[in-house]
Amino acid sequence: xxxxxxxAIFKDxxxxxxxxxxxxRMIGVDLFVLYDNGSSDGGANRVRASSFARNVTLIxxxxxxxxxxxxxxxxxxxxxxxxxxxFIDIDEFIVPLDGNSIRPILMRPAYERxxxxxxxxxxxxxxxxxxxxxxxxxxxxxxRMPETADACRHVKAIVRPSMLRGxxxxxxxxxxxxxxxxxxxxxxxxxxIQPNECHTVMAIHHYFTKSREDWxxxxxxxxxxxxxxxxxxxxxxxxxQALIEDRRGLRFVPRLRALLQS
Length: 262
Fold this sequence. Notes:
Elements: E1 4-10, H1 14-26, E2 31-36, H2 43-48, E3 56-60, H3 67-77, E4 84-87, E5 92-96, H4 103-106, E6 116-124, H5 137-140, E7 143-144, E8 155-159, E9 164-166, E10 175-176, E11 180-182, E12 187-188, E13 202-207, H6 212-221, H7 234-241, E14 244-245, H8 253-261
Parallel strand pairs: 1-2, 1-4, 2-3, 6-11, 6-13
Antiparallel strand pairs: 4-8, 5-13, 6-8, 7-14, 9-10, 11-12
Helix pairs in contact: 1-8
């Protein structure tokens, strides 16, 4: 059977790991290879104690910055087990816009000749939250930036490991032995920021800031791909642009709640 994986690195994401795992299990992901980049909040133990533990491989990863070296480790030691592998972050959710699962989408003839599919961001802001709200991320953050915003042309990759040659220069796109397409199945160049917008079939809901409280925690935590800190003003920039109400993620809430309670 074809297997779909996600490779991700995390640090101090305990409040969000189980929702993220449950959501991606729900939309067709089989297994997760997660690199713990020095967490101190017990997130890995929370995963081990959950019903998702059998679907997760947890690896301690002390490198700083550690994202690209973790991706290289995954490519060398794990990728060959899977038909598709996505490289995303814990604040990013792969959302099928056609149907409820990415599995039948990835089997479409439109993607057959491509080594990777690049999905564009839809960047969600704080949606009015100063403090961290109780409940689900996809439930509380429902306002995003316009699809035409420059930030929403950033991509993340779903890759055929059989054609993966590296993901060594940017966490946004891989180096592959075959061509690249967007979510519409049109051939594109594997640029981290695409010249044209494409938010059809599948997209990445990027819950970049969450609340102001979360943003301050994120700034202290640091980035996975760089030692440079996030600039403080980014929060207000995103909040000022993320005014488009997008409630499409709410259709997943009942199933997601049920899965988290099982």
